[in-house]
């Protein structure tokens, strides 16, 4: 199914547009979701010609590795011919008048029926200005066509700033017209959480406080801050990873089953799940949330965060967060969700571990202290994609001994290559008006409220950084967090 639309990309000369948006739009064109009735206006400050813009779009496709093995060599050029460049300063009202004129012309030329998607690939401080001018200068379609706004993180630095940002766009766009990208929601293994939970009687019937002991979410990176120090110094791991990506995953794992699998029902259940996460006092936040910053590795071959280029040598920015959240959603009431993310950890891996409760009765025990090994379901998100189910089975011929075995399913390289890039899927969803994989304002705001308490608690004390060595799995306190509850992290790679 294809859809007619005019895309207006603010920040058309930027990194996001070049690396992600142009290749994603091309893939949609190649697959037929966009046919000849679409157009793109790219706007930014640079004075580019349309011809130059076409060259940039074609080279973006080439750099994304999407120009090889194609039978139709003309396709990128044909695709790029739908692109129009308009030099534009977001503060200048006259430019919106010119933009409206061009938009109306293209609407007519390509018969776009007034369908408009405004993609703000720019810093959020511009969102309010752009949204206001789009409305005032009548760029929003009035007829039967749709107006959709796509925006990118960061959605604020805390709840008050997120609300201010949201208020600044909500005068022009209604919530149902706003598509907030959290690119984790565009990843197929994250989308499969709902399928695994609600598409299998086996897991659906076990997904409750009677059977789940705890849930663990790890987003670990082996790289350091690399060239993102400037941004990272103003953000840190909590704002970069926890408030958005991890909290979205938490909501998908703890939500109740929706009656119907559609974006409205899913959204309601996710909001409810986030509202049912226990709100901590500052004292509890200090106890249940651990922050860390990497130092050099033991052999001193890797720099500590404070010595990286572009960071403050006394920086108190966290590069690691671990925490315990407690859900009070009815089915999982009281079940702890341990979360963890960090840079320069032992191994790159995003994974979710569902740790099931042990059977109290071990009929195979040789003595009373012998416990069964815990059953664990692991969802591998990246770089591996798939599942591992750990369970006990009889081994050996002598006596009746049980040992854990791993039932593994992994997507092959070929299967992985066939999965569309997150941006391709998300832009296709926005084009089709499907909001399932976008973050609703209530989700974003509730996640901030939960995290703001932690931030406020942390801000009361100066952290003793650095507190973990590059190549380790973070500060000792992150291990202790689980040990205090008589548990341990399932994912515990050795360097
Ligand atoms: P960038 O600096 O590469 O691009 C910014 C764009 O905004 C450029 O096209 C620039 O010309 C334009 N611009 C800046 N000021 C302007 C003005 N006054 N008037 C008109 N145009 C102006 O940034 P980016 O990396 O493309 O990121 C854009 C946004 O997307 C940021 O908010 C970023 O946090 C977010 N984001 C980026 C990525 C990524 O992969 N690059 C990923 C997630 C989120």
TrEMBL record:
- The chain positions of domain Glucose-6-phosphate dehydrogenase NAD-binding read 8-191
Q: Which residues bind NADP(+)?
A: 45, 153
Q: Which Pfam families match?
A: G6PD_C, G6PD_N
Pathway annotation: Carbohydrate degradation; pentose phosphate pathway; D-ribulose 5-phosphate from D-glucose 6-phosphate (oxidative stage): step 1/3
Supply the Gene3D superfamilies for this chain: Dihydrodipicolinate Reductase, domain 2 (3.30.360.10), NAD(P)-binding Rossmann-like Domain (3.40.50.720)
GO terms, biological process: glucose metabolic process; pentose-phosphate shunt, oxidative branch
- The record lists substrate as bound by 183, 187, 221, 240, 343, 348
The enzyme's first-digit EC class, named in words, is oxidoreductase
Q: Which GO terms describe its cellular component?
A: cytosol
Any one GO molecular-function label of the UniProt entry: glucose-6-phosphate dehydrogenase activity
- EC number(s) recorded for this UniProt protein: 1.1.1.49
UniProtKB keywords: Carbohydrate metabolism, Glucose metabolism, NADP, Oxidoreductase
The UniProt catalytic activity note for this protein reads: D-glucose 6-phosphate + NADP(+) = 6-phospho-D-glucono-1,5-lactone + NADPH + H(+)
Give the annotated active site: 245 (proton acceptor)
The Glucose-6-phosphate dehydrogenase C-terminal domain sits at: 196-489
Q: Which family does it belong to?
A: Belongs to the glucose-6-phosphate dehydrogenase family.
Question: What role is this protein assigned?
Answer: Catalyzes the oxidation of glucose 6-phosphate to 6-phosphogluconolactone.
Q: What is this protein called?
A: Glucose-6-phosphate 1-dehydrogenase
């Amino acid at each position: 199914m294809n859809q007619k639309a005019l895309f207006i990309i603010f920040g058309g000369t930027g990194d996001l547009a070049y690396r992600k948006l142009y290749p994603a739009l091309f893939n949609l064109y190649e697959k037929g979701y966009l046919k000849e009735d679409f157009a793109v206006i790219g706007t930014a400050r640079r004075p580019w010609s349309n011809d130059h813009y076409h060259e940039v779009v074609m080279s973006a496709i080439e750099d994304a590795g999407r120009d090889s093995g194609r039978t139709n060599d003309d396709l990128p050029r044909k695709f790029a011919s739908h692109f129009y460049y308009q030099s534009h300063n977001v503060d200048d009202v006259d430019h919106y008048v010119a933009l409206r004129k061009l938009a109306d012309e293209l609407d007519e030329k390509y018969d776009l029926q007034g369908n408009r998607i405004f993609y703000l690939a720019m810093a959020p401080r511009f969102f309010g200005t752009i949204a206001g001018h789009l409305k005032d200068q009548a760029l929003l379609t009035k007829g039967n066509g749709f107006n959709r706004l796509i925006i990118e993180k960061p959605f604020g630095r805390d709840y008050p700033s997120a609300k201010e940002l949201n208020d600044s766009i909500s005068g022009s766009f209604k919530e149902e017209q706003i598509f907030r990208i959290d690119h984790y929601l565009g990843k197929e293994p994250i989308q499969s959480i709902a399928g695994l939970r609600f598409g299998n009687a086996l897991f659906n019937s076990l997904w409750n406080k009677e059977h789940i002991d705890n849930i663990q979410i790890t987003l670990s990176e082996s790289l350091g801050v690399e060239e993102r120090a400037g941004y990272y110094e103003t953000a840190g791991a909590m704002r970069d990873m926890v408030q958005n990506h991890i909290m979205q995953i938490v909501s998908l794992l703890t939500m109740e089953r929706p009656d119907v699998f559609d974006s409205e029902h899913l959204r309601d259940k996710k909001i409810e799940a986030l509202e049912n996460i226990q709100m901590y006092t500052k004292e509890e936040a200090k106890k249940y949330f651990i922050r860390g910053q990497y130092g050099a590795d033991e052999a001193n071959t890797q720099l500590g965060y404070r010595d990286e280029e572009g960071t403050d040598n006394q920086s108190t920015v966290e590069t690691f967060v671990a925490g315990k959240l407690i859900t009070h959603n009815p089915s999982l009431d009281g079940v702890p969700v341990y979360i963890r993310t960090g840079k320069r950890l032992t191994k790159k891996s995003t994974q979710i571990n569902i740790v099931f409760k042990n059977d109290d009765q071990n009929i195979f025990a040789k003595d009373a202290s012998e416990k069964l090994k815990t059953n664990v379901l692991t969802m591998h998100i990246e770089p591996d994609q798939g599942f591992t189910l750990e369970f006990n089975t009889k081994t050996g011929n002598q006596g009746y001994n049980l040992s854990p075995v791993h039932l593994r399913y992994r997507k092959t390289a070929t299967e992985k290559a066939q999965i569309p890039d997150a941006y391709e899927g998300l832009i296709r969803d926005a084009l089709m008006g499907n909001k399932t994989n976008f973050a609703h304002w209530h989700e974003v705001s509730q996640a901030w409220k939960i995290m703001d308490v932690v931030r406020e608690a942390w801000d009361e004390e100066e952290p003793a950084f650095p507190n973990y060595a590059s190549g380790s799995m973070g500060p000792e306190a992150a291990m202790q967090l689980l040990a205090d509850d008589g548990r341990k992290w399932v994912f515990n790679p050795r360097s």
